[in-house]
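We include the entry.

. . .
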Amino acid sequence: MSENRTQPPAPPEFPITDRVQHAMAQSLRGCEELLPKDEWLKKLARSEATGQPLRIKLGLDPTAPDIHVGHTVVLNKMRQLQDLGHQVIFLIGDFTSMIGDPSGRNATRPPLTPEQIKHNAETYYKQASLVLDPSRTEIRYNSEWSDPLGARGLIQLAAKYTVARMMERDDFTKRYAAGTPISVHEFLYPLMQGYDSVALKSDLELGGTDQKFNLLMGRHLQAEYGQEPQCILTMPLLEGLDGVEKMSKSKNNYVGITEPANGMFAKILSISDVQMWKWFDLLSFKSIDEIAVLKREVEGGRNPKEVKVMLAKEITARFHSAQAAEDAEADFNNRAKGGIPDDIPELTLSGAPMGIAALLKAANLVPSNGEGNRMIEQAGVKIDGTTISDKGLKVEAGTMVLQVGKRKFARVTLT
């Protein structure tokens, strides 16, 4: 890399056409922050005038992934920009994974072994390919340029940023104030992530809101190396099915991209009518204009459930198939009419007669007897289609279909 610190000459002005305005609107769709907007508009105008695609980077460290649709929000933004004709770069941080990023944490994230990195990188790429167009995606690994950098290059890189600036990072500030140890190698992480932008000559880098400091580091280092600084675009965290907390497996409010199509469809259909529009903005491949039409139709009296079904089918089809989405809708409608799905688990249990709450727990339909009793109180438990209201019920031997809520079923033979 050149050590030239001179600023590049000011780029010529290019016209802001309707296509450029459209590209800007797509860039801003659902995003949390785009910095600096005026620079990005100029980059889009230059690209439109010259026919030269912009280089758009997303870096992901292949840590053990919690794969759910919330993680695909930033991938969706990449796809939107890809569809505008720009070059997207899916950067796998195999080198930075060996450092461990403390972003948003109050302790160091443990580094991974090379074997873990390789396995998780394959998982990430498989996930990304369900959203991005693989034929138009550049896959890179940051070990390509980070390993050859060596000790000398790393020291030279570290000289381009001050400790005072590094301590402005929120999690470092809090840990220092609390007396929590900060290892020197943790300062290297944002430096190495920023250096990725130099190596790739990135025009735009995407990330979550918790990555803002690292994304800005890329801008700083590109200027240090005499490049035009990248713009940065952060995406919000997607709230889960409850519409309150961010989507998380630990909060059980998530839609996993590998879960069965029927469950995925039903979960998406359970979100609120208000929340639906944010999911459209962040997860749908429909255009801004198409979504605006749907909003007007709902405001004009169209049943919002019809629109939500469209969203559920689109997302289910993306991670399964169009036919699976159709089948999931049919399965949901069957359940809504009181029908029993075809694919419910079957098991044999002993201990008749057995208390109803204990039976529900043994059938893995509730996590505890207390939760079973709570569901009975809420009229959420059925045996062969009949709602159970007696928490003291002793269930005799036989084969029956147990149902908890709208989506949990089991065919149980009790002996």
About this structure: The mean pLDDT is 87. The two ends are 74 Å apart (CA to CA). The chain has three domains: 18-235, 261-336, 346-414. DSSP finds 16 helices and 13 strands in the chain.
